[in-house]
Amino acid sequence: MLNLNNVTHTYPNGTRALDGVTMSIGKGLFGLLGPNGAGKSSLMRAIATLQTPTSGDIRFGDIDVLAEPERLRAVLGYLPQEFGVYPRVSAYELLDYMASLKGIVSAADRRGTVETLLVQTNLWNVRTKAVAGFSGGMKRRFGIAQALIGNPKLIIVDEPTAGLDPEERNRFHNLLVEIGEQVTILLSTHIVDDIADLCPRMAVLANGRIQLEGAPDDLIARSRGSMWSKTIERETLEEVKAAYEVVSTRLFAGRTIVHVLSANDPGNGFSPVEGGLEDVYLTTVARSRTAATTVAG
Ligand SMILES: Nc1ncnc2c1ncn2[C@@H]1O[C@H](COP(=O)(O)OP(=O)(O)OP(=O)(O)O)[C@@H](O)[C@H]1O
Fold first, then answer.
1. Which one of 157, 189, 215 terminates a domain?
2. CA of 270 to the centre of ligand 1 (A)
3. For the ABC transporter domain, which residue ranges apply (predicted)?
4. Which of 7, 8, 9, 11 to mutate for ligand 1's pocket (most ligand atoms within 8 Å of CB)?
5. Contact 154, 184 (CB under 8 A)
6. What's the pLDDT tens digit per position in 100-122?
7. 118: domain range?
8. How many angstroms is it from 221 CA to the middle of ligand 1?
């Protein structure tokens, strides 16, 4: 179990990126969803021991993460957003090198680890090719392979599917689900579908705070009865926005469908709709913005 208690991080320029984050994360895939600048990377870096929060407490099982970072690193796999430049060596050689950095000293053990990971991430057939020449999806899978060296118990994955085509994204998702059966995986993203497809539990982070936490289905159910939909002409969108709390707008066959939030039937041609996770997310983010403005004002 990963436990965060009142984790706060203020950067030297005064930006409060994390503001009293408290949550518990068990085994399986946990999704952390939030808009740009919400504090996701700051939180990931704090848990991965790359940055010490200003205050608060982080524990993983019996490990006090802030006091014993090296114990956490021994059981951590981290896949950052960007790896930077890959050297022009083969996937096999690079993984072998990373395994030796992780402390697997016996060549036979390393061979076993590297070969298993290359097969698991479906990179066996390209193991002699340079990682620098891999496609985006192959690089992401290589990233997971390196994050899995040494059987980590906690895996942190930052924005994993950005830029992947649907087939690669699907392949990557299946890989995460397979791994997630045995370990804790914390997945940070601003792509709602990634969470909806993968994560039995999730939280929404905005303005450095956890705004919402639970199972995606429960969060959707909680919004039941308050979401209304109508198909409108594009030209009337501004009017609708002025009159209602518009959560989302999307185009369908050239017309605009709006979803609005209202505790009572707004009438006027609106019909009740089961909001999806995207609606729940957008509502939460919009409300956190309003709250932040109110506080600031
Ligand atoms: N090194 C830093 N110094 C000062 N401010 C920072 C620093 N890193 C991040 N911030 C600020 O802290 C806030 C949270 O940033 P963070 O990168 O954690 O958000 P994020 O949710 O990961 O965003 P994104 O999805 O864009 O990566 C933002 O306002 C950001 O500008």
1. 215
2. 39
3. 2-232
4. 11
5. yes
6. 988 899 999 999 999 999 998 88
7. 2-215
8. 31
